Amino acid sequence: MSDNNQDIFVKMASGHIDLANTHSKDADYELVAIALSHAAARYNAFMVSQNVPVGQMASERDKHIDHLSGQFREFLTQHYDGYVQEAAKA
What we know:
Number of strands: 0
Protein name: DUF3144 domain-containing protein
Structural class: mainly alpha
Number of domains: 2
Oligomer: single chain
Mean pLDDT: 96
Low-confidence stretches: none
């Protein structure tokens, strides 16, 4: 990822986190997390539909889902482990 795209990525991710934190003032964290995950899943399905012909989308369903789930798992593992490490220092 180029430096410019990295900056845009961090800014967008921070914006989504800020919005989730705002929602957390009115709803519990679990509900906010589920809504955020649902929105990400919906957007990812839309993103694939804009880049892959529908026939290919259907035949490669598991491939796309595995790829997107793998990205999420990678991000979640990184941040989960970061929180565990920070808690261990306290």
